[in-house]
Design goal:
Largest sheet: 7 strands, mixed
Radius of gyration: 16 Å
Number of strands: 7
Order of helices and strands: HHHEHEHEHEHEHEE
Number of helices: 8
Strand content: 15-25%
Length: about 210
């Protein structure tokens, strides 16, 4: 399976210098960003779904937001990050990418920000933040998402800990259990049609009815 993943990732060769710089920076600073095949899948979903407005929960250094913005020149993204260092990094990288007119980076807790901002007409929500709060994020963002809109959630397989294929790290075991509970909740949610793929670290896609 690992060899297959490496093969798939090797096919994605078209990338600009800034994204390469961001990947190296994330590796050096130990900032988790989406795996190559995961981010490419997310970009393809955006090209197909053609959202006009995206909410991202968990900006980190702005890597996913920049990738999403580059995948469709008409999309507007509001992203939120609660870590101050990462927030400033995201601001810097978004400016470097000349995308600050389409990506708005906010420094706040996502739940607080959503409740205060009450964003309207959201077509797509991308969640890649605190794993134990996934359900809360979906509950809070739900009223702002259009019918026919998508919620995309990263890390829903979490390095093999959700399926219990891996059990080495005790803290990650607990995170895996929380994500497993969230997955079951999302799949049984009456207002969403949900599917999951193994790409990246596991991605759930929920379509609002």
């Amino acid at each position: 399976m690992e060899q297959t993943k490496q093969y798939i990732q090797s096919l994605y060769k078209d990338q600009d210098e800034l994204l390469t710089e961001m990947e190296q920076y994330a590796a050096n600073q130990q900032v988790p960003i989406m795996e190559k095949d995961g981010i490419e899948f997310l970009k393809q979903i955006i090209r197909i779904h053609r959202p006009k407005k995206i909410i991202e929960i968990g900006a980190a250094i702005g890597y996913s937001a920049i990738q999403m913005a580059k995948s469709d020149s008409n999309v507007i993204i509001q992203t939120v990050e609660r870590d101050e260092k990462r927030y400033h990094d995201a601001i810097s990288f978004v400016k470097k990418a000349n995308l600050d007119h389409r990506i708005e980076v906010n420094y706040n807790d996502a739940v607080v920000w959503l409740e205060e901002t009450k964003p309207s007409s959201v077509d797509l929500v991308f969640i890649d933040a605190a794993k134990g709060e996934y359900q809360k994020y979906v509950e809070v963002v739900h009223p702002f998402l259009k019918s026919g809109g998508l919620i995309i959630v990263d890390n829903v397989l979490f390095k093999g800990y959700v399926s219990k294929a891996v059990q080495e790290n005790k803290r990650w075991v607990k995170i895996g259990e929380k994500i497993a509970t969230f997955n079951e909740w999302l799949f049984s949610h009456p207002q969403y049609e949900t599917t999951m793929i193994e790409t990246g670290d596991g991605i759930a896609i929920a379509l609002k009815k």
